[in-house]
Design brief:
Length: about 140
């Protein structure tokens, strides 16, 4: 059965495999990087809800990916760079189970701007999937 850390690690590997980011890591599970290299992506478990399915528990599980881009050029070019990155992350995860046996395909539920300060643009992509747990004995 898949664990939160295992699913998160698979998502991290999927984003790393895009080879578009200088830094891809977990948010909260690992130490903060000494220096933040842009563009960066952080994956984290955002929560889950029990569907109260019987006898096999099924949870609706949420994982988020933060895409962080530093505006080193014009506003227009920085926005285009960020859009390219969030599109690539969406396409790499959306509609795929990523070979995780007890997860249905991830659905990209939303993409939103969550921060813009001092030239750093941050977008959050929210993914959701059904996670099938083992039948309790």
């Amino acid at each position: 059965m898949s664990t939160i850390s295992g699913i998160e690690d698979t998502l991290i590997t999927t984003v790393k495999d895009l080879a578009l980011f200088k830094l891809v890591d977990s948010l909260g599970r690992k130490d903060e990087p000494v220096t933040l290299n842009y563009p960066a992506a952080f994956v984290y478990f955002a929560g889950d809800k029990n569907t109260e399915s019987q006898p096999r528990p099924i949870f609706i599980t949420d994982y988020d990916v933060l895409v962080i881009v530093k505006n080193l050029r014009s506003e227009d070019k920085a926005a285009k760079d960020a859009y390219t990155l969030i599109d690539a992350v969406r396409d790499a995860i959306n509609g795929k189970s990523l070979s995780i046996a007890d997860i249905e395909k991830f659905i990209c539920m939303s993409r939103e701007l969550v921060g813009y300060e001092a030239g750093v643009i941050t977008y959050r992509l929210q993914f959701q999937a059904r996670h099938y747990l083992a039948v309790p004995s």
